[in-house]
């Protein structure tokens, strides 16, 4: 539905928060004549672009939607029975409206501030419980990026955890999905792991392997008894990872019960549309003993200051932002929104509902197999769940063609075989058409196939999966959880390095259109003409704004873009027989993913020092570049730096590295400070990744989805990612796939397309200027309360500023944590804490916040500073004041007992808090360490909350 009239203002006017008079006031406070004068003073002339961006004239919101409708119409959606990890599923309407299309869910940030994230943490704990129950292993994480990368993570987990094996060989059963094998190979190559693909039907090949991956059910449909296979692999000293399917596991023996060490897969078919390949939540569960090596985020149960149960992210010290090059994985942004959808699908259907869906799918597959056999078509496997492999010597292509004419996509396995996967959407009419394509009759009266090793154990017995059966109940559960959380629809989320800006409704609209949502990633490419055009345009526009020659949108997050970019650099050096180049220079202040990605790309990290003013120490860089000249592969820098300043010396940095034979990787996470003003490809970068979920408006989803396109100069273009199942996805000479789907998270690309299309060159540039203005305004207003740690030219910052709390902490004992939690009482999400400098807060207001909201934030920070002064003056004891006790729940302030040194009023309604819209956190400060010591990562019994 779209009957809104042509809107009066341009989209850029709506996207950019401050009104012209507000801009004038802000510029005035900063002492500049206008915003251009401020930007000229902040951004070094040496990096400024000479020409404006060459982008189409901006479209209005209505016109952009019309163009998107035209693109959508070019996609020819058929019924998909291709399978291979992507299946038809019905997203319950209540989940579409109340979750997928609800900004309270999709505009939330990663739950690093758990007190304001209890709703989505509960939803993620439900997800972990679903995965853990169905796979039969005790600990599951809160999502990975897709099934292919989950398999690659399983390989590296097995490699580092298998202390008994000295082998560097990883065995992969040949009946794994082709894209999974290819992603595993891409990752293995850089790490020196040898991947051996073998048919293990008649036993495992000879030799030592540290790990073994098998698909269950197999890519061609066969369901094998895992028990003897796993036993044999264990006997040979390998750890076993099983790639599996959550729906199948409602009927089949759980891999964990058969002895698997790791289970991975995709939760897509639990209510998440095909989306032409993504975003979908990958998952991983592990047996006891491996939980501390699990990659990705893990939600656990802990307690708050009152001893009440509370959720938070567990074991965070495993993650790249702490362990950097020693991290177990580089994954940062994951697929939270999609994991939440999958969890809610399980909550709504419950164990009986899921089982009923699985039985129907299995029964249809059985009837299809019987009908084919009755018509004289050979069916290869007797044991299957949803996928039937038909043998039609020499005529497989004809059958697939006939089905396509009939509106159905089947899988062309080879010249003699066709694969047909049934799913939740399969019905008699569809199977009748499938059978017609084989020239046989569908007979619905034929019996279903049996399952040889059925599941006997219970699953999803927790009350949450057995309560919300009516739509009313589900509606209220979703509302209850989102009400516990703070998202952008409540107020500003000033997280430095994260660019929590407006995710406009017009940008979001196309995501759920069936022409974009219901396309299988391996559908004939001619049926995806709309997507191909949209992706081509988006890649060209991204190349234009960054100044690079070519872009691949395949990586599913910034971390994956980093890995793709570093693999491109590696491919380039190897292509020139420069095989020794494996040193990656990384400034001390870099984001943790940089170091972790470098290690995953087979590189050795060498840290470059920073100066006291936050800039790169050029002398140290020269020395390190000279010392490692023969091995120098790359430097990874962030621009503007993670210190929030435009470094004048960036061209010099690039030159030093180039002069020593290295390549320059510019982390593009901070592109919101550059668009329209400067291009990394122009000022010295050879490659960058971008975070479309920052600068280009894909919402953060509570921790994903993301898209991390990799952009490269012409000499690196031959080494971009490609895909074994689609030539158009990348160059033949490419490094292999970095994601399971040819175009990664294609389903959310229309968001960024719409943003660029509606902003145009002028709008994007205006947004950048506004982002620089708001950051400098906040820095200026707060300078008396909290000093800004680093500034660039003329004492100005870029699009974010670091507030230094360390002197205050030294004086008063009040920590950065106390301030962050106290901001919750004032109705705010805290800025980024202790990154890149411990004891600081990094504020990034973005261009979308208007002056009213910026002032509300600054007023809150200044009021907090006054509270700290009262602690310093001894007016409030250091151990009992509103800061150390923050945040305050409603329950804590209405409690009959109140023996604090400050009033209830001061606790809950400090100055400037609007009483009518007060945000109440559901829990008090959470004790993270308690949860790590007593690890609980699935739904606790309801009694725990009494
Ligand atoms: C500077 C920087 N680089 C890289 C990343 C990694 O991006 P992603 O979380 O999408 O993997 C981030 C994300 O927070 C970042 O801030």
From TrEMBL:
Enzyme Commission code(s) on record: 1.4.4.2
Q: Name any one GO molecular function.
A: glycine binding
Concerning HAMAP family, the annotation shows: GcvP (MF_00711)
Family membership noted in the UniProt record: Belongs to the GcvP family.
Give residue ranges for domain Glycine cleavage system P-protein N-terminal. 13-437, 462-721
Against SUPFAM superfamilies, the record matches this protein to: PLP-dependent transferases
Annotated InterPro entries: GcvP (IPR003437), GDC-P_C (IPR049316), GDC-P_N (IPR049315), GDC_P (IPR020581), PyrdxlP-dep_Trfase (IPR015424), PyrdxlP-dep_Trfase_major (IPR015421), PyrdxlP-dep_Trfase_small (IPR015422)
Query: Where do the Glycine dehydrogenase C-terminal domain residues begin and end?
Result: 767-888
**What is this enzyme's class at the first EC digit?**
oxidoreductase
| Reactions catalysed, as given in the entry | N(6)-[(R)-lipoyl]-L-lysyl-[glycine-cleavage complex H protein] + glycine + H(+) = N(6)-[(R)-S(8)-aminomethyldihydrolipoyl]-L-lysyl-[glycine-cleavage complex H protein] + CO2
Name the record gives this protein: Glycine dehydrogenase (decarboxylating)
Its job: The glycine cleavage system catalyzes the degradation of glycine. The P protein binds the alpha-amino group of glycine through its pyridoxal phosphate cofactor; CO(2) is released and the remaining methylamine moiety is then transferred to the lipoamide cofactor of the H protein.
For activity, the cofactor(s) needed are: pyridoxal 5'-phosphate
List, in alphabetical order, the GO biological process terms annotated in this UniProt record. Answer: glycine decarboxylation via glycine cleavage system
Q: Which gene encodes it?
A: gcvP
- Known partners and oligomeric status: The glycine cleavage system is composed of four proteins: P, T, L and H.
Q: Which Gene3D superfamilies match?
A: Aspartate Aminotransferase, domain 1, Type I PLP-dependent aspartate aminotransferase-like (Major domain)
**Annotated organism of origin:** Kribbella solani
- Gene Ontology cellular component terms for the protein in this record: cytosol; glycine cleavage complex
| N6-(pyridoxal phosphate)lysine modifications at | 694
């Amino acid at each position: 539905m779209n009957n809104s009239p042509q809107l009066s203002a341009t989209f850029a006017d709506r996207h950019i928060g401050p009104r012209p008079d507000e801009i004038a006031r802000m510029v005035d406070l900063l002492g500049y004549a206008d915003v251009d004068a401020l930007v000229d003073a902040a951004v070094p002339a040496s990096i400024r672009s000479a020409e404006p961006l060459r982008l189409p004239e901006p479209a209005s919101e209505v016109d952009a939607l019309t163009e998107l409708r035209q693109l959508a119409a070019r996609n020819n959606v058929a019924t998909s029975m291709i399978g291979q990890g992507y299946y038809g599923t019905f997203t319950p309407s209540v989940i579409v409206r109340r979750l997928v299309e609800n900004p309270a869910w999709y505009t939330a940030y990663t739950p690093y501030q758990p007190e304001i994230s209890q709703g989505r943490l509960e939803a993620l704990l439900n997800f972990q419980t679903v995965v853990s129950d169905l796979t039969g292993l005790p600990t599951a994480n809160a999502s990975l990026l897709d099934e292919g990368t989950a398999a690659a993570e399983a390989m590296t987990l097995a490699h580092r955890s298998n202390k008994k094996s000295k082998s560097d060989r990883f065995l992969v059963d040949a009946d794994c999905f082709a894209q999974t094998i290819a992603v595993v190979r891409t990752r293995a190559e850089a790490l020196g792991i040898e991947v051996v693909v073998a048919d293990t039907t008649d036993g495992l090949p000879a030799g030592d392997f540290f790990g073994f991956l098998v698909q269950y059910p197999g890519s061609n449909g066969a369901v094998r008894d895992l028990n003897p296979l796993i036993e044999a692999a264990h006997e040979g000293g390998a750890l076993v990872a099983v790639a599996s399917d959550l729906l199948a596991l409602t009927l089949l023996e759980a891999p964990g019960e058969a002895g698997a060490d790791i289970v991975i897969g995709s939760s897509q078919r639990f209510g998440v549309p095909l989306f032409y390949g993504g975003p979908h939540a990958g998952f991983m569960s592990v047996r006891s003993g491996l939980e501390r090596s699990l990659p990705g985020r893990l939600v656990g149960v802990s307690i708050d200051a009152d001893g009440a149960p509370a959720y938070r992210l567990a074991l965070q010290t495993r993650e790249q932002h702490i362990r950097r090059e020693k991290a177990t994985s580089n994954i940062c942004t994951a697929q939270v929104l999609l994991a939440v959808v999958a969890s809610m699908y399980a909550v709504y259907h419950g164990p009986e509902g899921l089982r009923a869906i699985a039985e129907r799918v299995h029964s249809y597959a059985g009837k299809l197999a019987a009908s084919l056999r009755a018509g004289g078509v050979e069916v290869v496997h007797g044991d299957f769940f949803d996928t039937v492999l038909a043998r039609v010597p020499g005529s497989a292509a004809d059958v697939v063609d006939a089905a396509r004419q009939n509106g159905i996509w089947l899988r062309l396995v080879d010249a003699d075989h066709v694969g047909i996967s049934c799913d939740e959407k399969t019905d008699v009419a569809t199977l009748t058409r499938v059978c017609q394509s084989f020239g046989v009759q569908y007979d619905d009266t034929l019996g279903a196939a049996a399952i040889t090793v059925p599941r006997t154990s219970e699953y999803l017995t927790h009350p949450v999966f057995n309560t919300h059966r009516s739509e009313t109940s589900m509606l209220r559960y979703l509302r209850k959880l989102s009400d516990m959380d703070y998202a952008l629809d409540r107020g500003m989320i000033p997280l430095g390095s994260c660019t929590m800006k407006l995710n406009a409704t017009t940008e979001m609209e196309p995501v759920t259109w069936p022409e974009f949502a219901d396309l299988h990633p391996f559908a004939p490419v001619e049926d995806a003409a709309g997507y191909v055009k949209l992706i081509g345009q988006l890649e060209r526009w991204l190349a234009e704004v960054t100044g690079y020659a070519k872009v691949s949108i395949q990586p599913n997050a910034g971390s994956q873009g980093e890995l793709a970019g570093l693999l491109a650099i590696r491919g380039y050096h190897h292509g020139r027989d420069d095989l020794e180049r494996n040193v990656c220079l990384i400034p001390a202040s870099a984001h943790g993913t940089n170091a972790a990605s470098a290690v995953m790309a087979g590189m050795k990290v060498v840290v470059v020092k920073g100066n006291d003013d936050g800039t790169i120490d050029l002398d140290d860089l020269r020395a390190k570049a000279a010392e490692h000249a023969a091995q120098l592969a790359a430097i990874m820098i962030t621009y503007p730096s993670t210190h929030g300043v435009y470094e004048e010396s960036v061209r010099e940095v690039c030159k030093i590295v180039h002069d020593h034979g290295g390549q320059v990787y510019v982390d593009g996470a901070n592109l919101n400070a550059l668009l329209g003003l400067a291009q990394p490809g122009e000022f010295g970068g050879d490659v960058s990744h971008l975070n479309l979920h920052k600068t280009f408006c894909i919402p953060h989803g509570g921790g994903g989805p993301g898209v991390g396109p990799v952009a490269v100069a012409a000499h690196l273009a031959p080494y971009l990612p490609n895909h074994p199942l689609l030539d158009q996805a990348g160059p033949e000479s490419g490094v292999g796939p970095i994601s399971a789907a040819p175009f990664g998270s294609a389903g959310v690309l229309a968001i960024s397309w719409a943003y660029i299309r509606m902003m145009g060159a002028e709008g994007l540039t205006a947004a950048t200027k506004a982002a620089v203005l708001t950051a400098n305004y906040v820095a200026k207003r707060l300078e008396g309360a909290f000093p800004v740690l680093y500034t660039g030219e003329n004492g100005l910052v870029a699009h974010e500023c670091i507030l230094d709390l360390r002197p205050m902490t030294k004086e008063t004992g009040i920590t950065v944590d106390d301030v962050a939690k106290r901001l919750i009482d004032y109705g705010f999400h805290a800025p980024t804490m202790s990154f890149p400098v411990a004891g600081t807060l990094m504020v990034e207001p973005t261009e979308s916040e208007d002056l009213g909201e910026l002032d509300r934030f600054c007023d809150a920070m200044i009021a907090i500073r006054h509270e700290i002064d009262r602690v310093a003056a001894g007016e409030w004891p250091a151990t009992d004041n509103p800061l150390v006790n923050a945040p305050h729940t409603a329950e804590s302030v209405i409690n009959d007992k109140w023996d604090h040194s400050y009033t209830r009023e001061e606790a809950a309604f400090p100055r400037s808090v609007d009483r009518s819209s007060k945000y109440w956190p559901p829990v008090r400060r959470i004790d993270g360490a308690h949860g790590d010591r007593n690890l609980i990562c699935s739904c606790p019994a309801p009694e725990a909350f009494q």
